Amino acid sequence: MFDLTLRQRHYLERVTTYGLVIGMTVLLMIPMVWGVLSSVRPSQELFSWPPQLIPSNITLDNYRLLLETTEFTQYFVNSLVVAVLAMVFTLSIATPAAYAVTRYEFKGRQYVTNLSTIIYMFPLVLLGIPLFVIFSQLGLTNSRLGLALTHTAFALPFALMLLRVFFNDISPAIVESARLVGAGRITIIRKIILPLSLPGIVATVIFVMALSWKEYFFALLLMNKNALSTLPIGIASLIGMSTTNWGLILGGVMIMSLPPMVLIFFLYDYLLEGFAVSTL
Amino acid sequence: MSEVSEQTSATSTGALAQAKNKLDNLSENQMGLLLVLPLAVLLMVLYLYPILRGFVFSLQEVSLFATDPVWAGAQQYVDTLNSDRFWGALENGIVYTVGSVAVTVVVGVGTALVLNRSFFGERFVTGLVLSPYMIPIVGIVLVFRWLFNGLNGAANYVFIELGLVNQPIAWFSSSTYAMPMLILISGWALYPFVCMLVLAKLQTIPDEYYEAADLMGASRTRQFVSITLPQLKSVLFVAILLRMLWTFNLFDIIWLGTQGGPGNATETLPIMAYRIAFDGLRLGEGTAVAFLTFVVLAAGTTIYFRSFGEASA
Asked: Which positions 198-237 of B are in contact with A (Cβ < 8 Å)?
């Protein structure tokens, strides 16, 4: 080992790096790749033994069946509606709060910055049982609005964390010079803060929608009408049907999972930046 | 945001101009509180009020359909604490939490260290490795249930070929394998979070540290132990704490994987609370279990801070 030249050492390191990268990626991607392959093969091949890695021919039958015989489109629409509502609520509450935390010194500021740690101390069930009772008294069970409200509560700490990063990035010098030429608080927010933090706000919008999209517990608790189910509940309910058609279920799983998976490519820079400054 | 934007939408009227003036005359403290107000209201309505209401439930015998709750005092807490089921669920929860967090941290730190090297296609691979973070838990659990299905799952085939097992195993309905299965799924579902935290931290360690170490002839291992690990310590403290809180409270992976079964083999405290409240229709008792879960968590967090808090600060 010690006699290696510098060049050999360099080569060895390259080889190790690529070996590690490829090994890691392949190992971690097995479940999803197997899922995708199973959703596009003919159903009779699903139960062949030994299982075949490559499908004999690629078919979208499972996807067609999913759209034709189940209420998949309805679940999809429900998920989308809830996600948009939750996003609007979350952003309109978290944006001013995040701005306040980055710009102003006020009493109780540290509670807002430590919000996530405090909130995650409470088990979801502890919140869920009384919320279920309160929401049924208010007629908010079996309501997409009610579900969106619980998703808002859930997404707020994440939104606060991300938004704080972007507001922090705006140099106080710009704000100060605007104030010196006589700009009021609203003008500063409207003309400087919002345009400059727009990419961050877009990232937060996507992230909050993805959080709502994947949420399971409150959707299970609050929605017990099939027509109002969101995707996670709807797809899980396909399992209970008399003969479990795995090809069809995996098709649903892929339509639900692949779009958010693709979004991570655009989001992870923002998330890393968020994690670098926050403890969430 | 709402009051602010409402005011900006119609700037011409005099009353609004006056309001704007007023806003500019507020002190920092007042301005901050005003902007945080909507958040505070929402937290009170969706967290504080339900939890207080839940505490009252836990002192009553409330059923899902009965109209008149019967006052029970601390009886439900006493009964729960005296039941074997509670202690079994607590033990399951600890096994599940420690197991999942260990897998998550090992995989998360490992992947972050690999991703921190420079290689071709770095951005693509990083996205791919972090992508499970965005997949709905339902999707993850279903994919694993298919991969490990007891009849002809691909995992069974591979394990038999490798000689690890003799015959196909029903992973999710065996009381021996159900818990390791859930830990595996949780590890896969949750490692990207740790990976992101660690990666974010790694990228802030200045290159000069490593260059200086190189000049002094420190080996790679030595550099990792003396530079990387100390830098990661505080972020790992946070990651482990938050993961433990999350995992101990986790509901969806266990519910979708085994519903706490077979029997009570994988029943943790949140699952027990849910089963009692909604399957057993005893809301009061379920809430009492949920409160005890919270107490366990709070105690665990305090102990964790006491024993590791100073070392990592």
From this structure: 199-201, 203-204
Chain B CB contacts of A2 under 8 Å are none
Sign of CA dihedral B157, B159, B161, B163: negative
Task: Give A142-154 pLDDT, tens digit per residue.
Answer: 889 999 999 998 8
The answer to the question of residue A225 being in a domain is: yes
Helix (H, G, I), strand (E, B) or coil at B61: strand
Residues 6+ apart with CB under 8 A from B297: A121, A123, B245, B248, B249
Q: Note whether B77 and B292 are within 8 A (CB).
A: yes
B270: left (phi over 0), alpha (psi -120 to 50) or beta: alpha
Q: How far is CA A34 from CA A58, A254, B98, in A?
A: 14, 11, 28
Summarised one tens digit per residue, pLDDT across range A20-38 is 999 999 999 999 999 999 8
Residues of chain B positioned with their CB less than 8 A from the CB of A214: 134-138
Handedness of CA B97, B98, B99, B100 (dihedral sign): positive
Are the Cβ atoms of A279 and B238 closer than 8 angstroms? yes
Contact B283, B57 (CB under 8 A): yes
A1 CB-near residues (< 8 Å, 6+ apart): none
* Domain annotation for chain B: domains and CATH numbers: 2-58 (no CATH), 75-312 (1.10.3720.10)
Residues A54, A186: one domain?
A: no
Q: Is residue A257 part of a domain?
A: yes
Domain presence at residue A1: no
Domain that holds residue A47: 6-58
pLDDT digits (tens, 9 = 90+) for B214-234: 888 888 788 888 888 888 887
**Pairwise CA distance, residues B236 & B12, whole Å:** 53
